[in-house]
Amino acid sequence: MAHISASVFTSHVPAIGAALDMGKTHEPYWQPLFQGYEYSKQWLKDNTPDVIFLVYNDHATAFSLEMIPTFAIGCADQFTPADEGWGPRPVPMVHGHPALASHIAQSVIQQDFDLTIVNKMDVDHGLTVPLSLMCGQPKEWPCKVIPFAVNVVQYPVPSGMRCFKLGQAIRRAVESFDEPLNVQIWGTGGMSHQLQGARAGLINKEFDAKFMDLLINDPEKAASIPHIDYVREAGSEGIELVMWLIARGAMSDVNGHPAPKLKHRFYHVPASNTAVGHAILENA
Q1: Which of 12, 103, 193, 278 is an active site residue?
Q2: DSSP 57-104
Q3: Is the pLDDT of residue 86 over 90?
Q4: Is the pLDDT at 255 greater than 90, yes or no?
Q5: Average pLDDT of the residues in 172-194
Q6: I want to staple 8 with a disulfide (CB 3.0 to 4.6 A). Which of 69, 79, 80, 186 is the partner?
Q7: Is 268 noted as a catalytic residue in this protein?
Q8: Class of domain 3-282 as given by CATH
Q9: What does pTM read for this prediction?
């Protein structure tokens, strides 16, 4: 059977992708951030999965205000890097795993979570920046990727607890797939940041640190954080952190197994006007 071996959590700031693409990673502003991912790149080389189930949010690229699914799973064979207004990023095509994605959709919908099945879509920086941070600039991504888009842009957005329970359903779906696949689940977005209004530029290091502590050690308490606390404490875009709870809910300790092992934890501010958080957990 397939199994989830690890979860990866990371921000997906678009300026990070631009810094990579323009060769600015060694500049004084950017070097501390990219240094924080050096361990992670080696870890991924040593622990390359067959499939990455990558939770992210679309930024009005595949979806618009005309149609915004709460949860959407990419079931196509491949996904093209999106043109977000200045041309597509110079990154490889994303190759999917239609069989596993379709199985997860079937299983999760039967567990009473409504998913939108997407058979064609472009993927924006929300998905490609995490891949670049963890993989560098390869000619091909090292494994197949299943995109899983969550609406955290247009209200109403899903609660942290619903995302956490969805992660549990995804774990059950993966474990019922009849192939011996090694699957990692990545939760991306966040941490604290606000892009507009009177509080534009807000960063709350204390909230970010507490959230990461809870995510690692008490995920159910993290999942209980009410929506208004994200907005008040982490800014209007801090709600992206609920996507981390999908990945955390898919870890085996939530189902009564031993706690996962923390392999790496990193935090840096600022990247553009955003706090960057990152962690890797391995299932016991």
Answers
A1: 193
A2: ---SSS-BTTB--SEEEE-SSEEPBPB-SS-B-S-PPEE--HHHHHHH
A3: no
A4: no
A5: 97
A6: 186
A7: no
A8: alpha beta
A9: 0.97
